[in-house]
Predict the 3D structure of the following.
Amino acid sequence: MRPELIDITLILLIAGIVGYYIYLRYREEKRKKEKQLIPTLEYYRDRYLKERSQYIQRAEKFRQKMEHFRDRINHIKNNIQDYSWNQDEKKILKTLKGTDFEWTFSVMFEILGYRIYEPPVFKDHHIDFILEVDKDKKVCIDFVDHQQAKKLGKKYIDKLLEGKEKYRCSGVWIITNSRLKQEIKEYLLKKEVNLFEYEQIIRFFPSIRIVEDYYETTTRFHNYELLHKETTDEIIRRDTWLNEVEEKLQEAYKKLEEKKAVAK
């Protein structure tokens, strides 16, 4: 036999031995995997059941917290008479300006039960917000802080009135934490623009403390609402996984019974 054929024969022989060894290892690993399949699936089933139970308890705690803060929100809305102005709050009112002033009183209107939203074009015709008094009545609102009040003139007011017509509002309100000049007040009266100066705010609106309480309470409510949703999502995931594991377990039990039947 030529040396080349001997080499090829040895190589084929070695390859055959290695291949057979790999096959035996594969069968052994497969047998072990099949043997461990049911205990592994049972482990995951028990684990997911335990986790699901924990998430259900957690979700219930978050739901109770949500209910608590929802009740607190309703209590604030139903007891605005408890929020009378003190001297410190009056001082803060005088210093509010810009977006802080607008935000505070936009939230105030929300607490009072009105729907309030910005016009499609930012500060279009000096309009900060449009307030829905009822289904068929809207009011254009302009918040004028103590710094802006000095610049308020007839042209500014006429621009507001143009916005009133554009957005089909039934009225215009100017809300300011300052005091306007008498000349401007008379012009507003002539144009049928409602004016809320510092004194009228104190008289007709609850204290800005209600905004702080409401904002803090709604923030905590929404935080627990988010946690409740995330926890509920985890319960749904565990339900999905449990269904998948249960299907695989039933299949594994069936195969095991078939093997036992064949062995008999």
